Amino acid sequence: MNTVNKNIFWKAILIATAAGLVGSTMTSCGETVESSHVNDVSGTQLVVNVYNDVWDTWPENMRNAVTYCVSKDFGANYTKVVNSLRVALDDWETYGGFHYTHKSEFDGNCSASTAVTFDVRPVSGQDYLMRAFFPHTPRAQSNILVDSSTFSHPDQAQVGFFRHEVGHTLGFRHEHLEVTGCNEDGQWQRVTTYDAASVMHYPHCKGGTGDIDNLILTERDRNGIAKIYPKYVGPKVYFFKGGQYSKYDMQADRNMPGYPTTILPNWRGITFSSVDAAVNWGNGKVYFFSGSQYLRYDVMEDRTDPGYPTTIAGNWPGVTFDRIDAAINWGNGKVYLFSGSQYIRYDIASDRADAGYPRPIAGNWPGLFNSVDAAFNTGSGKVYFFRGSEYSRYDIATDQVDPGYPQPIAQNWPGLFAADIDAALEW
Ligand SMILES: [Zn+2]
User: What does the alpha-carbon distance between residue 188 and residue 165 come to, in Å, rounded to a whole number?
Assistant: First the structure.
């Protein structure tokens, strides 16, 4: 630390080496630095760690499977730690395709050997505020250690420290690793252009803001996480059955690896034990129905909007159904809602059911089942309906089921639930 000011402002948050060793103090960074110092290096980054010549990031099958505990040894600070870490995680998860799950049942005995991916524990007397680990780090060292000095900072600072540490756990190196005096070794690769204000940049290594109590994700941090942990944006369809869901790749025509999996915690805020119907409204919102209730889900935020679930009754003008079996956006400003042997056409612009509904399915949907479990729109002129162990493809232009249908789900949708799908959703 030699010339580093002993003021807490200068304390190292973390040094993580390329080998994944953590917790060493700042060794080379931190001469006199003012916040007015703009970066003096060219090029670079959010910076991803490279280990054994490959990106040190979570493999796809771990991205929604990382778990952690938070030690009750934090005592009076326990709730603050739990909440600060969750806020920090939510920030990253908003832009990245991953989710960490808090296993609070382990918090009473949360150690380096607890059966979670990593543990969060208090320490004291260290010359760092917090330290973390990289994805490839062995379990015993996969900890976020929080020094007691952390709590002398305001609450929002702790959220910021966790934002930084979570960045390491995702495989990100220090943004300042090329800043003279703050250099770090090892293997790494630049992900975005250099960002002195990055959450991964020590403020005192010629960081843009110089404010250690307000570490936030910058636009380039968000772009970086989205690049390394992409949220899928292509043609995928979600299928729901009971408490599970599957993700189907329409292009590869197969169920994606790792599915089915549980609705929670992957669909945040969906408290339904099962879903009856789901429909993409086309405006960044998705509606899920279950029994007499529904909820609105935000696609970009990847979470249920506040205030939901609520009742269908009173919120869907003209919809007389007490439950919805299937819902589908026709792509022309109309949504069809199915319940039993009937259906209703709903107008998106006027936000109400069209006059003259409900009507019977029979006689109005040539070739279709007389009731449906689930439906989705491919967006390319074809719509799929599911019932029991069968499905039918419906052509929008000819307004009838294509010849040769229905067909069995089992042989035609590899890896998908073979029967009794509750809901389908194009994403
Ligand atoms: Zn760090």
Answer: 17
Alpha-carbon distance 284 to 277, whole Å?
17
What was the pLDDT predicted at 232?
60
Task: For residues 61 and 257, give the distance between their C-alpha atoms in angstroms, rounded to a whole number.
Answer: 8
CA 202 to centroid of ligand 1, rounded, Å: 7
Residue 16 alpha carbon to ligand 1 centre in Å: 6
The residue to which tokens 């789900």 are assigned: 409
Q: Fill in the amino acid letter for 344.
A: I
Question: How far, in Å, are 16, 301, 349 from residue 279 at the CA level?
Answer: 44, 17, 16
The answer for residues whose C-beta is within 8 angstroms of residue 298's C-beta and 6 or more apart is 284, 285, 304, 305
For residue 200, the CA-to-ligand 1 centroid distance in Å is 6
Distance between CA atoms of 271 and 32, rounded to whole angstroms?
A: 51
Q: Which of 70-79, 90-99, 280-289 has the highest mean pLDDT?
A: 70-79
User: What's residue 11's pLDDT?
Assistant: 31
pLDDT digits (tens, 9 = 90+) for 86-103: 999 999 998 888 999 999
Handedness of CA 256, 243, 135, 42 (dihedral sign): positive
Alpha-carbon distance 318 to 339, whole Å?
14
User: Residue 376: is its pLDDT beyond 50?
Assistant: yes
Q: Nearest Cα to 384, choosing from 343, 421, 332?
A: 421
Which residues are 386's β-sheet partners? 374, 391
- Averaged confidence pLDDT in the chain: 85
CA 111, distance to chain mean position in Å, is 26
Question: pTM of the predicted model, to two decimals?
Answer: 0.52
What is the length of the chain?
Answer: 427
In the reported structure, the alpha carbon of residue 130 is separated from the centroid of ligand 1 by a whole-number distance in angstroms of 8
Query: How many angstroms separate the alpha carbon of residue 293 from the centre of ligand 1?
Result: 45
Question: How far does residue 62's CA lie from ligand 1's centre (Å)?
Answer: 22
What is the Cα–Cα distance from 146 to 149, expressed in whole angstroms? 8
CA of 185 to the centre of ligand 1 (A): 14
pLDDT digits (tens, 9 = 90+) for 206-226: 877 678 888 989 888 998 898
In the chain, what are the domains? 8-228 (3.40.390.10), 236-426 (2.110.10.10)
Strand partners, 401: 394
